[in-house]
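Input.
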Amino acid sequence: QVQLVESGGGLVEAGGPLTLSCAAFGNIFSINTMGWYRQGPGNRRDLVASITSGYISHYTDSVKGRFIISRDNVKNTVYLQMNSLKPEDTAVYYCNADFAIWGEVWGQGTPVTVSS
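Output.
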């Protein structure tokens, strides 16, 4: 079994930065793509950014130039550095990882609130 533990969410003023972390624990073996999704009130859960085991990243258009996704394959951790935050970035952010053995696993979610 594996689990993803997220941290770093909270309240931030518009224009400010915030960094999320997501660490994998358990019988990991290896992780393919890791990513961050978000779900705002009344919205579906959408992809924010993803990164492959080879460090190829992808971003949704609304966060390009503001967010940076990175990973540490030794620590089995993925990060989301969020800069120039906007009120519309307010959402619950979920970590997602594709484990070689276990398949797709989700974290519990961490809330991010951006005040205007």
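The radius of gyration is 14 Å.
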